[in-house]
Specification:
heterodimer; A: about 350 residues; 14 helices; elongated
């Protein structure tokens, strides 16, 4: 029990360190913007007064960090200046801890609302807040990632079992080749091909958007394809390994049908490593969703980041999206990790 | 070498030839538009057809190999160099260096989706080939550093290292002359897989409009230009050709990497 707690606290410490780094990175990266964010947002024609007002409104007129080592405009010499606690880095932390990620440079919408709710309008009741949340960018991305995961699992388990049971046959080889092609074909090749085939040629599904329930099929399959190929290979080698174990011979000797042996006994043990990978892959899906959303115009976090954030140079929005995606990723990974350590003592580190 | 890695070597060899001799192989100028000849199907004049502005798809794919391989080589070379030094120092000295590198840096970089970091960096720095390379190196070195650290931890306990130390060799000499040459084998595998990753990442970022800016014939840019619905309807080959090029090169580098791993670690050969 004691080392379990120690292990858990170590994980949480690492988690906090990582989150601290991410927040620091997204706060400080904005300083890398060539030129000045205010000019970049308002354009070259903005008057000095407009720029001043913008900088004041978005807190850009304060020092960026505890100290600066900037080139002085007049003398051209670098000098070191200490700004103390009165800086934007501390401000941003204060805001985040209050659940506030600032306001969009473009639309003035609070970033928290843009990601977890709806911009424009005030949600009057908790019911409204909840229904806005269900329609939000965040939920949209989560939905896509989860459906992709389900697609990947339901394709890969039967295929992996078939390949593993028929090891070395033409069927196994064919499935291996398909899996390899699946792993190597990136989503941004597969997605447009699906659009060509199922939307343009066959006319079965809409090429983009999120209007009907079936609109999720193409993005989810695109996003899940690489994962299902990877999982098929894992299930296959897992099944092959387990088939050689003694308990399989025992089960067969009991007179169980091959089907029961494979699905009840082999798969139960063979899936342990697969499940471990699965949790970690949820994070990968979250990152991959950025590209899938762009292809299918799926209104999630990734599209928000690419189109509204980067496309319109709305750096506050970019900060918010990067922060939310990474923190979700980090939490998903840590949570899976902790759960498996508790479940399977063999994985625990000493 | 198994059959698949031989296939990988042949494909990579072809891509290298394409990249090196691109001006001789290409049949048209990559930027030359021909609006009367848009969406043309493959023919004798345009071997792989033309795209939405009548540019020759074959010539563009050939030149695209230059961009992909250049990004791949630079990223893998720089990441390997940085990763090897950091990983070797962490593995050899241990102590606080190792605690920072292994305890903090590795955890942070692994806990963070690499692609997202690259997107964020390019978003703030602005798009462009050099910034793309910089971003990929920053996320890339960690993999090499981890491999080398693990290897150095193992090799530094070997007898010949003790012998070198007993003979009075300096730390740097032990590390770079005795340990590293015996530790870099797995790095070759990592570098081959890293090429696949870098080629893919370049295409991804260029596809998102964050890498090489159009009209450069990057495979990612070509895909992005070919995927709008009217082009897709009229000229699916404009999408298919760069798509196959990306998939084939990624597959080939992965095959080589897998083959090398098997070759270096005979225990895996039976699987």
């Amino acid at each position: 029990m004691k080392h379990k707690l120690l292990d858990l606290s170590r994980r949480i410490l690492i988690l906090l360190l990582v989150v601290w780094t991410v927040v620091s990175l997204v706060t400080l990266l904005i300083e890398l913007v060539p030129g000045d964010p205010a000019t970049a947002t308002l354009g070259e024609d903005a008057t000095a007064a407009q720029i001043e007002q913008f900088r004041e409104k978005h807190n850009l007129d304060r020092p960026a960090f505890f100290f600066s080592y900037a080139r002085d405009a007049a003398s051209g010499e670098r000098d070191f200046r200490w700004h103390g606690m009165n800086n934007r880095y501390i401000d941003y932390w204060g805001m985040i801890l209050r659940g506030d990620m600032g306001r969009s440079f473009r639309s003035d919408c609070p970033i928290t609302k843009a990601i977890f709710g709806r911009c424009g309008g005030q949600a009057a009741t908790w019911n409204d807040v909840f229904s806005d949340f269900l329609q939000s960018r965040f939920v949209s991305t989560a939905q896509l990632a989860i459906v992709a995961l389900i697609v990947a699992v339901s394709i890969s388990i039967p295929l992996g079992v078939i390949a593993g049971k028929n090891r070395g046959t033409w069927l196994d080889n064919a499935l291996s080749v398909i899996a390899l092609v699946g792993i190597s074909t990136p989503g941004f090749v597969l997605g447009p091909l699906f659009i060509y085939l199922f939307a343009l040629q066959l006319g079965w599904l809409a090429p983009s958007g999120r209007n009907n329930w079936e609109d999720i099929i193409l993005p989810a399959v695109t996003l899940g394809a690489a994962l299902s190929a990877l999982l098929t290979r894992m299930v296959r080698s897992s099944v092959i390994e387990e088939m050689g174990e003694d308990y399989v011979r025992t089960a067969r000797a009991k007179g169980l049908s091959e089907r029961t042996v494979v699905y009840k006994h082999v798969l139960k043990n063979g899936l342990i490593p697969v499940v471990t990978i699965l949790g970690l892959q949820l994070g990968v899906l979250l990152a991959g969703a950025i590209i899938t959303e762009k292809i299918f115009n799926w209104p999630g976090l990734g599209l928000l980041l690419i189109d509204d954030g980067i496309g319109k140079r709305d750096y506050r929005l970019v900060q918010g999206c990067v922060l939310v995606i990474s923190v979700t990723y980090i939490f998903a990974n840590t949570l899976t990790d902790i759960i498996y350590r508790w479940l399977d003592p063999r994985i625990r580190i000493q | 070498m198994n059959r698949l890695s031989k296939f990988g070597l042949v494909v990579v060899g072809l891509f290298v030839l394409m990249a090196v001799f691109a001006p001789l192989i290409a049949t048209h100028d990559v930027g030359e538009t021909d609006l009367l000849n848009r969406y043309a199907a493959p023919s004798a004049a345009h071997w792989l057809g033309t795209d939405a502005t009548g540019r020759d798809v074959f010539s563009r794919v050939i030149y695209g190999a230059r961009i992909s391989l250049r990004v791949g080589l630079v990223v893998v070379f720089v990441s390997t160099f940085i990763g090897t030094i950091i990983g070797a120092l962490a593995g050899y000295y241990g102590g606080w260096i190792d605690r920072i590198v292994n305890g903090y840096l590795f955890n942070v970089f692994l806990a963070f989706p690499g692609l997202l970091l690259a997107i964020a960096m390019v978003a703030f720095l602005g798009a462009g080939l050099n910034k793309l390379i910089l971003a990929l190196c920053i996320i890339g070195w960690v993999g090499y550093a981890r491999v080398i650290r693990g290897q150095v931890l193992k090799v530094r306990e070997y007898d010949f290292v003790q012998a070198a130390r007993a003979l009075g060799a300096s730390d740097m000499r032990i590390l770079f002359v005795h340990i590293l040459p015996n530790a870099i084998q797995p790095l070759i595998v990592q570098a081959s897989l890293g090429m696949a990753g870098a080629v893919l990442a370049e295409a991804t970022l260029s596809f998102l409009g964050l890498g090489v800016p159009p009209p450069a014939p990057s495979w990612g840019v070509m895909l992005e230009e070919a995927r709008d619905l009217s082009t897709l309807q009229a000229a699916p080959h404009a999408l298919l050709v760069p798509g196959i090029a990306i998939a084939l090169s990624v597959l080939a580098f992965n095959f080589i990497g897998d083959g090398l791993r098997e070759y270096l670690d005979p225990r895996q050969r039976s699987r």
